Amino acid sequence: MRSQMMPTYSPPENMEVSHGEGIYLYTADGQKYIDCVSGIAVNCFGHANPELVKVLKKQAERLWHVSNMFRVPEAEKLAQTLVDHSFGDHVFFANSGGEAVEAAVKAARRYHHCKGHPERKRIVAFESCFHGRTTMTVAVTGNKAQMEGFFNGDLDCDHVPFEDMDALKAVVSKEKTAAIILEPVQGEGGVRPFTNEFIKAVRELCDETGTLLIF
């Protein structure tokens, strides 16, 4: 049967996934596979985790989506837990990584605008990164193949080689740069981790230039 799904990917024609359990995927014809893709690195708890199923079922029977216009105790409790275990002071819940990056870029540019420096809007990223597939996050990623046909120009984004501090310092400025964005471990770049020393140096550069840092 011909699928009416948009052909954004090319899944195997003869492999239909029926269900999952833990780290395993099962196909309609009974084959069993270890799920090394994990929903492109988002299903870190596996499939059909009993504890998660229990909690999700309980919540689904009580309340669904009500937007941020109303207070939801469980959401506030989760936000507090995340703040308690991270460097952040506030939490923005998003539907995807792309939406999270969009929000971070907007927040960085808005920050400088409110500080009286609207000209500071350029975002600096590293080559071979991946930050999403929305228009803005495609520009931040900088992959020419993914950008083709969508927009002209760079949407105020710069890119430097992986762990090249000299190149980074040459691009970042107090006059134009809003933020530096990096993945502590690049995914599409080949599962390449930045060294702790380099990340600390980036933090210091941001402090020196008044630039925000997005992880």
Describe the structure.
- With 215 residues, the chain is of the alpha/beta class.
- The protein has three domains: 1-61, Aspartate Aminotransferase, domain 1 (Alpha-Beta Complex), CATH 3.90.1150; 63-92, no CATH class; 97-214, Aspartate Aminotransferase, domain 2.
- Helix content is 36%, strand content 15%.
- The chain contains eight helices and nine strands.
- The strands form three sheets. It has a four-stranded parallel β-sheet, with helices on both faces. Strands 1-2-3 form a three-stranded antiparallel β-sheet, with no helix packed on it.
- The longest helix has 18 residues, at 97-114.
- The radius of gyration is 21 Å and the shape is globular.
- The N and C termini lie far apart (42 Å).
- The model has no long low-confidence stretch (mean pLDDT 93).
What is the strand and helix layout of this fold?
Blueprint: E1 17-21, E2 24-27, E3 32-34, H1 38-41, H2 50-60, H3 73-84, H4 97-114, E4 122-126, H5 135-141, H6 144-147, E5 157-160, H7 165-171, E6 177-181, E7 185-186, E8 192-193, H8 196-209, E9 212-214
Keywords:
four-stranded parallel beta sheet; 9 strands; globular; three-stranded antiparallel beta sheet; alpha/beta; 215 residues; Aspartate Aminotransferase, domain 1; 3 domains; Aspartate Aminotransferase, domain 2
In short:
The chain is of the alpha/beta class and 215 residues long. It has 3 domains: 1-61, Aspartate Aminotransferase, domain 1 (Alpha-Beta Complex); 63-92, no CATH class; 97-214, Type I PLP-dependent aspartate aminotransferase-like (Major domain) (Aspartate Aminotransferase, domain 2), CATH 3.40.640.10. The chain is 36% helix and 15% strand.
